[in-house]
């Protein structure tokens, strides 16, 4: 929907392997930063939307992860809504927080995403991803993925899916094979996405991985599920991010000068479309219309590159280029810093990391800093309009949930 919300403060932990820290500790760090950035006290918060996907599985904290973190900070009384929506959990929390402010119900709302994914039992971690499909029809999901690859003229070996790797890597491999068959996209073009994001991540002190890779290094890395090699797959991680959202009236009271505005934020669940549009295309079209902009107006983008092929395909679905031209788009440098529209300047999920319940708000943190001119070595010159896209889950060939938000300065 069309939004009228302003971002007063942002905060984020470094993403990575935080074995010695609990979920509360990470959550509190991000919220503290956001409150200080906004220049407000915890007591000014009127509501909180808390995104998390895996706490019940990984740390055993079910039902009230948001409340336990906030109470540790001395924050109570306010409405606290815990949001679980697969990899779109945090972006859903952000969308709902924005909507309540736009509706005039609150003036100051917190949106947070936090996650712990590392566990000594890797099967527990992989089970989180397996649970993001229809578990009562898991065999049917596997067959759909195999059929998708088969229709592209390739056989996909799913031995080890869900046990040695996330089943989503097989889903993304099938999507990649389909794109290669239909448009002639090459494995090297997928590798170019990973190499580009590794360069961006090398400039981000909060990224999980800071090493810059070449296309050749990406291609030479261990294979996960053809055509995906290890750097083409997002890593698991721990981390948290937070955003303080305020109404126009509150922004004036705080004296915010030229603040970042949330112009639109669209949340949809997947469906079986008859018109052939994906959930991402539908959300993007709505978000553009409500914000009064188009893809040609975008200064920078953070999108859901859970795999390198995902980013390349989203170029096309977000309208950055025509269908089938995503490979050429990345090869020609259009999505790199200095290019036409830099994508995933944070390093993306591939290099910044992907603590799934935190990812959506982390995207907003990066874009806010870009629009404020605070992104340091990875700053996009003259950034004025930014887009965040974050999807999660998989049902019948598409994302189960997806959010597209547009920020302006």
Automatic annotation (TrEMBL):
Name of protein: Thiolase
InterPro entries: Thiolase, Thiolase-like, Thiolase_C_2, Thiolase_N
GO molecular function, one term: acetyl-CoA C-acyltransferase activity
Pfam families associated with the record: Thiolase_C_1, Thiolase_N
Residue intervals of the Thiolase N-terminal domain: 5-248
Domain Thiolase C-terminal per the UniProt entry, residue ranges: 279-401
């Amino acid at each position: 929907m069309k939004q009228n919300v302003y971002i007063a403060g942002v905060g984020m932990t470094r993403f990575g392997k935080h074995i010695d820290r609990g979920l509360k500790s990470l959550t509190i760090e991000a919220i503290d930063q956001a409150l200080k950035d906004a220049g407000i006290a915890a007591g000014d918060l009127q509501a909180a939307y808390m995104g998390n996907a895996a706490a019940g599985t990984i740390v055993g904290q079910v039902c009230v992860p948001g409340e336990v973190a906030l109470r540790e900070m001395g924050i109570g009384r306010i409405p606290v809504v815990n949001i679980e929506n697969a990899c779109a959990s945090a972006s859903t929390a952000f969308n709902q927080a924005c909507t309540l402010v736009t509706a005039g119900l609150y003036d100051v709302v917190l949106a947070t995403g936090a996650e712990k994914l590392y566990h000594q039992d890797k099967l527990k971690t992989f089970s989180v991803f397996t649970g993001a499909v229809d578990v009562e029809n898991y065999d049917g999901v596997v067959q759909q993925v195999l059929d998708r690859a088969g229709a592209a003229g390739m056989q996909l070996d799913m031995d080890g899916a869900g046990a040695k790797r996330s089943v989503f890597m097989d889903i993304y491999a099938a999507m990649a094979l389909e794109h290669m068959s239909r448009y002639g996209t090459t494995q090297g073009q997928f590798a170019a996405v990973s190499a580009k994001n590794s360069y961006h991540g090398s400039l981000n002190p909060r990224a999980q991985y800071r090493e810059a890779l070449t296309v050749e290094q990406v291609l030479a890395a261990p294979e996960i599920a053809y055509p995906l090699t290890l750097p083409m797959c997002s890593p698991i991680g721990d981390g948290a991010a937070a955003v303080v959202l305020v109404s126009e009236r509150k922004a004036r009271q705080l004296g915010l000068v030229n603040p970042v505005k949330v112009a639109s934020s669209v949340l949809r669940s997947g469906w079986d479309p008859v018109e052939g549009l994906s959930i991402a295309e539908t959300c993007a079209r709505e978000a553009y219309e409500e914000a009064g902009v188009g893809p040609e107006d975008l200064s920078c983008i953070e999108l859901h590159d859970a795999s390198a092929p995902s980013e390349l395909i989203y170029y096309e679905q977000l309208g950055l280029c025509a269908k089938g031209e995503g490979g050429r788009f990345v090869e020609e440098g259009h999505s790199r810093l200095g290019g036409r529209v830099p994508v995933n300047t944070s390093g993306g999920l591939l290099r910044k990391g992907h603590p799934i319940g935190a990812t959506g708000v982390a995207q907003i943190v990066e874009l806010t800093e870009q629009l404020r001119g605070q992104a340091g070595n990875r700053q996009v010159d003259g950034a004025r309009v930014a887009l965040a896209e974050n999807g999660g889950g998989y049902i019948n060939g598409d994302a189960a949930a997806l959010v597209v938000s547009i920020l302006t300065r």
